[in-house]
Write a structure and sequence with these properties.
Two copies of one chain form a homodimer. The first copy, chain A, has three domains: 11-75, Multidrug-efflux Transporter Regulator, Chain: A, Domain 2 (Orthogonal Bundle), CATH 1.10.1660.10; 80-116; 122-255, Antibiotic binding domain of TipA-like multidrug resistance regulators (Globin-like, Orthogonal Bundle). Chain A has a two-stranded antiparallel sheet with strand order 1-2. Chain A has 13 helices and two strands. Chain A is mainly α and 257 residues long. In chain A, α9 (162-184) packs antiparallel against α10. Chain A has helices spanning 11-18, 22-30, 49-63, 68-75, 81-116, 122-128, 134-144, 148-157, 162-184, 192-208, 214-226, 228-237, 241-255, and strands at residues 38-39, 45-46. Chain A is elongated and about 95 Å long. The interface between A and B is large, with 56 and 56 residues. Chain A binds a DNA duplex (30 and 30 nucleotides) through α2. Chains A, B: It holds the Pfam family MerR_1. Chains A, B: Residues 8-77 form the HTH merR-type domain. Chains A, B: This is HTH-type transcriptional activator tipA. Chains A, B: InterPro entries: DNA-bd_dom_put_sf, MerR-type_HTH_dom, MerR_fam, TipA-like_antibiotic-bd, TipAS_dom. Chains A, B: Keywords: Activator, DNA-binding, Transcription, Transcription regulation.
DNA sequence: GCTTGACCCTCACGCGACGTCAGCCCGCAG
DNA sequence: CTGCGGGCTGACGTCGCGTGAGGGTCAAGC
């Protein structure tokens, strides 16, 4: 049944038995993880039964994803196997969720590439109204095209599909509604409600478009009262809202120490 | 709002804006993936707006898990993005299932390590009867301990927990039942039914214990009629079964061309 | 004008587990 | 004696940077 060649196997035979490559066995020898007890006079590696046992354990641990050094520890009796198993499990599950997120990101990108992204500005106009026309986009490019924030924003929104823009719009509407509510209930821009709305505003831009520090946020607030187009947008929602928003943003920025 | 330093950003600024390290930018420069258009007279890298745009795209692709070389291709306009996305998705999902299997393997190993593996031979005796006692195991070790097959078998069964052994027993019973049915219905060992049972037998050992080629399988069949203990086991199931099994194994081996 | 500290530069090795030559040796069959 | 199928030992390549080492640059404060 066994070819009893003195019970010593050469690398090739061992490699085939355990479904690993010869190079792998060489490597294990190099790093001292598995050194065959014997060598033929010609220098051939000869594996004994105990070597095979050790290799069997190594192969099992490798399938469990352990590193070679870690395996060496375990074989030396140092370290608790159960603890290593737990750590490994934790690491693998972490990687699993990362990969799952990657898949959804890829699906997202695929959808976007397949033509699900808003055709030019058509659908965006439907969503955001006529204030969002080509001339606006062109001017924005003109004014901010060379800022990092604009670049970042372009990179992120490039993969937004219609559903994303709908979420963006919903969030934006919610923030505006919060501002209007605070204003109309007579609360000052320094009230918690107004400042919370300002913070929500900052987060919205930060999450959806580009990183916004508190000072950058104040820059935006300033613009809302100095740039006629932005002022108009806010005034259409409620009289005095543009200035109110700016003040709330300033108060919120001051609130952060 | 923007610090307009001639619209040229240094590595540090760019790195912070895109949440990458300076080293990464150096690396992209080294491999020619992103070479800043300009350098200061002191040799400082100066990134222009178009450099930032390119970097933005690179960062997005990186998040999607593409390799740098692949990204270079895409940026050069070679290769279809959608196709790359699909390939990437396929690769990631493959890796996902691998990792899922790894987790179950780890859970398995954990269960086994936590004491769920059969205490010595107690539970095995319950399952397999008294034929499975220590003297048997010792003798097996004695006879086959130095064969690769034995080593492989030990490595695999070492992580078997009670549930695994129950599955093993169920499979074994099913195979034996098939042999008995074929024998008692008067079909010859060369019948399809008998040969199929032999093949199931080989697969069972192959999957649960160690790799079994057809010739090795015939070696086992031979042993069933020459080793009294094995013969007895089969004869207890049905008179003449040991010889019948051997013949079926030989027929099945011959069937494979 | 000088020092300080924060940045920037260019090498160049390290990582993890082998894959992949290259150049050479051994043993056995014809 | 000559192949041919192994086995041997270097040693470099992989992938995307991390991490020093050793040394300039620049704006600010003294």
């Amino acid at each position: 049944m066994t070819e009893t060649t003195q019970d010593l196997l050469t690398v090739g035979q061992v490699a085939e038995t355990f479904a690993v490559t010869v190079r792998t066995l060489h490597h294990y020898d190099e790093i001292g993880l598995l050194t065959p007890r014997e060598r033929s006079y010609a220098g051939y590696r000869l594996y004994t039964a105990s070597d095979l046992e050790r290799l069997a354990t190594i192969v099992v641990y490798r399938r469990l994803g352990f590193g070679l050094e870690e395996i060496a520890e375990l074989l030396a009796g140092e370290g608790d196997l159960v603890e290593h198993l737990r750590r490994q499990r934790a690491a693998v599950t972490t990687r699993l969720t990362e990969l799952r997120e990657l898949v959804t990101a890829l699906d997202h990108a695929l959808e976007a590439e397949m033509g699900n992204r808003p055709a030019t500005t058509e659908e965006l106009k439907d969503l955001f109204g006529d204030g969002f026309d080509e001339s606006y986009a062109a001017e924005a490019q003109e004014r901010w095209g060379d800022t990092p924030a604009w670049t970042q924003s372009q990179a992120r929104t490039a993969t937004y599909i219609k559903a994303d823009w709908e979420s963006v719009k919903a969030e934006m509407d919610a923030v505006n509604a919060a501002f209007v509510a605070a204003l109309e209930s007579g609360e000052p821009p320094t009230s918690a409600a107004a400042m919370d709305a300002a913070e929500a505003h900052r987060r919205h831009i930060n999450d959806r478009f580009y990183d916004v520090s508190y000072s950058m946020h104040q820059g935006l607030g300033e613009m809302y009262v100095t740039d006629a187009r932005f002022t108009q947008t806010y005034e259409d929602l409620a009289p005095g809202l543009a200035a109110y928003v700016k003040a709330a943003i300033d108060a919120n920025a001051a609130r952060q120490q």
